[in-house]
Task: structure prediction
Amino acid sequence: MKIAVVGAGYVGLVSAACFAELGHEVVAIENDLEKLAQLHSGCVPIHENLLSELFLRHAGIRLTFTSDISDGIRNAEAVFITVGTPPAPNGDADLSFVEAVAREIACDLQSRKVVVEKSTVPVRTCEAVRRTMLLAGADRRLFSVASNPEFLREGTAVSDFLYPDRIVVGVDDEYSRSVLAAVYSPLTNGSYYRRDDAIPGYSAGAPRILFTSVKSAELIKHASNAFLAMKISFINTVAAVSEAVGADIRQVCEGVGADSRIGNRFLNPGIGYGGSCFPKDVLAFRSIATQLGCDAELLTATMNVNQRQRDRFVEKVRHAVWNLRGKRLAVLGLAFKGGTDDTRESPAIEIVRRLVKEGAQIVAYDPAAVERAKRELTDIEIEYSDDPYEACRGADALLVLTEWQLFSELDLRRLAQLLRCPMLIDGRNLFDPSEVKEAGLHYHSIGRRESEAPLPESEELVPWHQ
Ligand code: UDX
Result:
């Protein structure tokens, strides 16, 4: 099938490459000429596992790029809209890019197409897209509008696309249903998984495609992300209680998550959720719910708990090192989660900024996100290190802010020797408290009592101010 994808951002690029992987002929349309030049030269402009592999396989063959929307959509049967929907100052999603694309498609409509909204948008956006296209003069017989929300997580987006839990397709007419069923048929009929060259992944069988009305599909996206964000805020609330009474949140999570009605995924406490989706989606969902006159208190609480979690972590650091002014703190992790270079709405970035404003000196390491962090943290001065151990040399404490797998594999004894003060403050619960203690480090984590390594004999104690 011939497919056009408008907007080669994160979702657009992954979707376009994966559609090509499924055997479709894909044109990705991007109006940022610098990005387009990168794409033409075969460069993948984002850090995403397996995406380079898909580019090697398909770029220039089944996956091509253009800045010309009219050219790009000419032969397409399905046109996916994957442009950005950033938050507007009032919390609504800013849909001006979606509107602009809808108008352009309307002006270039020469053959029948299904226009599929894939960006995360509030319920009723497809209705507005359809109206915009009609007002722009599109022939109603030549298009229908569908919704196909994505559930891609950064870092595992390609596998999430090819091995989804479910595929949600919102359609209000038979034609759209048949086109979108054909788009995803290599996954739903299992033929993709039987290919020798299939990207490996875990699948418990071919995924289910769920056809719903357009409005229901739009709501599924916001409801899913808001639920996951709420689950994280919930467990962060429990973690605070657990810490206060001296329980162990890992055991609590195991017990709670073992109930199959709850499940143990997205039940890890930490420094709060970040990224380009959860914060924005919860805000936008609350905004649309409020506009519709519906109660959105649960969403407000989810956001407040998330903010409070960052505050609590800064308090924890203050409690551990006493005065922040003049303290040298090693920070491991700047990305909003492990496996990505993305620092958008990263709790780590906010925490670093606040610690610096309180007088701490930061030396930070992240395996992928340093360049992006530098662009974001222009208002403060911090040092960057290209080695996690070096970052710790002579520091008054080590802070772990992102759940990179490689951090959990660090040699704790070596860290203890490099740090000036053997203090580990773990915002992601990456370590086992008894192992940290054995390595000679004091340990502060989330939802567990702090654990003290034996203090050196009094004459060996290093005063804080030295
Ligand atoms: C999310 C959704 O998972 C995905 O379905 C949607 O399409 C886009 O938004 P993503 O933003 O890539 O994906 O990250 P995700 O893995 O969901 O993590 C979001 C945030 O929650 C991160 O900051 C992460 O560290 C945090 N998190 C996640 C927790 O604090 N605890 C958890 O148990 C899980």
User: Anything to note?
Assistant: The chain has two domains: 2-212, 306-460. The longest strand covers residues 2-6. Residues 306-460 form a domain with the Rossmann fold fold (CATH 3.40.50.720).
